[in-house]
Amino acid sequence: MNASRRGFLKSTSAGAAGLLLGFYLPERSELAAQTAATGTPAKVNAWVRIGTDDSVTLMIHKSEMGQGTVTSLSQLLAEELECDWKKVRTEFPPIDPAFGLQGVFGSQSIRSGWMPLRTAGAQARDLLVRAAADRWAIDKAECHAANGVISNTVNASKLTFGQVAEAASKLTPSANVPLKTPAQYKLIGKSMPRLDTKDKVTGATKFGIDVRVPGMVYAAVARCPVFGGKVVSFDATKAKAIAGVKDAVQISNGVAVIADNTWAAFAGAKALEIKWDEGPNAVFNSGAIRKSFTEQTMQPGASARKVGNGAIGLNTAAKKIDALYEAPFLAHAPMEPLNCVAHVRADGCDVWASTQMQTGIAGLAAQITGLPPNKITIHTQYLGGGFGRRAGTDYAGEALEIAKAIKVPVKVTWSREHDIQNGNYRPASVTRFAGGLDADGWPLVLTANIACPPMGGGGSFGGGRGGGVDSTSVEGIADLRYSIPHMQVDYHSVTGGVPTTYWRAVGYTQNTFFGESFVDELAVAGGKDPVEVRRRLLASTPRLLGVLNLAAEKAGWGKPLPAGHHHGVAVVNNIGSFTAQVAEVSVTAGKLKVHKVVCATDCGQVVNPAIVEQQIRSAIVFGLSAALKGELTIDGGRVQQSNFHQYDVARMDETPAVEVHIVPSTEAPGGMGEAGVPTIAPAICNAIFAATGKRVRRLPISATSLA
Amino acid sequence: MATIRFTLNGKPQTVDVAPEMPLLWVLRDTLGLTGTKFGCGMAICGACTVHVNGQSTRACSVQANYIAGKNVVTIEGLSADGTHPVQRAWIEKDVPQCGYCQSGQIMGAAAMLAKNSKPSDADIDEVMKFHICRCGTYQDIRAAIHRAAELQAKGGVG
Questions:
Q1: ipTM of predicted assembly, 2 dp
Q2: In terms of residue numbers, what domain contains B109?
Q3: Which of residues 236-265 of A touch B (CB under 8 A)?
C-alpha cells in the first residue's frame, strides 16, 4: 500500500488530522491506527482473518524459533488463499483445537502443515469467492480470485477480500476444495524474504523475556545443584536485605526470590541459604558414568535391529575391526535464557512464553491452577532459540507455581548459569562397534551396542519404547540405510543421574557421528574409497545415494585439493529428508581448520529455498559447536560448567564457508531444522582421519586427537 | 539508590536505581527498552551490546553509575526507522533467524564500521567473534557487514 492510499484510509476513518499525520507516522503506528479504525478483522476460518481494509492476518500455530515458520507457513496459507502477500501479517494464536497439537519439535512444522494449511487457505479463498458470487448473483465458477481481489468474469467488476470477508465468515466451508498443482504455485518454492526480519533488526520483536505486564514482579529460582534434589529448609534473611527483593517462596523445584527487577531477583536467589536433600543422584560423576556405560556395551542388550546374524557375520568375516565411540552430555544453550510470565487469578490464568510446547503448557496450567482449559490462555512469544530445550515445560511450571502463590503477574528469568546447570540435556552415550569385511574388502557385518540414557527423563517426551528400546536413543544407527548383509544393534537403557531430553536432531546428533565414522573405518580397513563404499551400500536407497553423489561431485571428491587440505564425507536420512556433507579441513601443527562444507539435501518439495539454505548453514554451526567444543562434565551429581566461558560454542572465525545444493523433488516435504546437524561431526572427523591418520572416536575433538 | 542522569538515544534521561545495577537491567526493567538482550551476564556473548560514547559496550557488565553523564545508544536509537546502513544490509541479506542476538550483533557491527569503514574478513572476525549466535548466522552477518560498508560509503543511500 503506498503512502497516499494509507493516508486516504486514515482520512476517511479518522478525520483530517489522521491524513496529515499519516505521511509521517512510522509504519507500525499507522498499522495500529488502521486496525483500530477498521475494527476486528473477520475470522474467515481458524487460520485467516481479513479486515475491511484488506489486511490479511494469518495465524501461525507453530512457534518461530529461527527456523522460518512465520514465513514458510504463511506461504502455504497465502498460496491457496490468493491474498496480496504484501498485506500479510501474522499472529501466534491461543490454543484452539482447530490447530491440533500446538508445539514445534521433530522438524514437523512444514511436514505436518503441508496439507492442512494449504487446505485452510483454499477453503478460505473458496468462502471469499462464494461471498462475492452471492453479492453478484452469479456462479462461483464465474469468479476469479488473485492477489486479494475477486474478479467477476461476466461483467469485469471487482471486489476486494476485505469487502466480502464479513459475509464469507458466515458461510459454511466447502469440504473438497481442490488444491493447486505445482505448476500453479506463485509462492511455494520461492525464496520470499522472511516476514520477521524487519522487527528483528530494530529490536521491536517481542521474545518471551521481553514481556511486561502491568503489576508484574520479577523472580529467579534457586534450584538444587544435584538433579532431583529437594529443599529441606531455607533462610531468606540475606536475600531480603538486598534492595529490590520483596519475598521468597518455596516451590516444588526450589526457592523463588521475588523482586522488583531481574538483577535483584538473581542476586536474591544467590543469597538464599538453603539446606538441600540432594537425593540419590549426588553419587554420579563423569568418570564413573563413562565406565558404567562402557561396561554395559559389553553385554547383550535389547534388540533394536537385526538383519542376518551378527555373530555369523563376524565369524565368517575375512577381516574384523572394532571401535568404541563416546559422546558427552550437552546443553542446548539457546541465546534467550529460559523464562516465563504467568498470571494466576481465581477466574483465569494467562501464560506468556517463548515455548516449543504450547499445548503442554496449557495442560500443565490446568493441572497447577485447577482451572478449566477454557480459562487458560497461552500467549506465544517469539523464541530466542529453542533447539529442543523449550519443548519441555519446566520453566512454565515454575512460573505458574509462583504466580499461584503470589497472585500477581510474575516473570521468572533463568540466568545463564541456571540454564547450563539446571537443565535437561542431550544424553552422554557410548557405542561399541564390531564390523567385518568380506574377502573383497566390502562390508559384510556391522554390530553396534549402544548405552544411552533414554531421552524422556526430566523432559516432556517418553520416546518410543518397544521391547526395552528407546527409539530416539538408537536412531542414526538402528536405521542406517546401508545394505550390509549382517547388521545387529543392541540397546542398553542407562542413567547418569542427569535429566535428558531432545536436542536439535536428537539421537542422530551422536549416533550419526558414531555410525558414519565407523562406516568410514570399514571403508579404510577394506582399502576402499569412503564415497565408493557408501555408493555401493546405498544402491537401493536412491534419494540418499543421490545426495551423496551430488555432494561428492560439487565438492570435487577425489580431485586435487589445496596443499594440506583433506575431504571427509557423511550422509544421513532423518526427519524425512536426505542429506550428505563433504567437509574440507586442514590440520596444521595440531590445529584444526574447517575450511568449507558442501551440503546436498533432498527434502522433497521445498517451500522456501532461502530458508532451507539458512537452516543448513545454521545446523552446520550448531553441529560444529558440539564437534569442536561441547562437553558438560558431572561431579557429585552437579554440572561443573556454568556459562559460555566454560561451555563455549562456535564463533564466527571458526565457521566454514557453506555451499548448499537442493535436489529438485516432487516428493512430500521433509523436515529441515534438524537435517543438517548430524553429518557435520562425522564429515569433519573423517576428514581429520584423511589428514592425520588418527581416528576421532570421542567428542568433542580433543587436542590430542590432532597432535 | 542514586539519581543518574545520562543521554539515552539522543534524549536526556534520569533514573533512580541502585548505582551498581547493570546498565542492561536499567534499560530492560527500569526503562522498558527490551531491544537490548540478556544472554550471559558476564560479557562473553555480546547479546547486550550498546554504544556508550560511541564505544561498543556490554551493558550487562557496566554499572549504572558508570553511565552518568554519558551518551548511551541502544538498538532502538540506532536509527529512527531501521534505516542505519547496518540495519538495511541486515534486511537485504535476511540475516536473522531467531533474531535474539541480532541487536547486539548490529550494535557491534555499527560501532566497528564507525571506526573502520572498509573492514576485511579478518577485521570483521576479530570484532564479531565475541558475539555468539546459536542459530549460526555468522556467514550471513559477515556478508551483511561488507554490504553495510558499501551502503555507508554511499552515505547510507544505495
A1: 0.98
A2: 85-153
A3: 243-244, 261-264
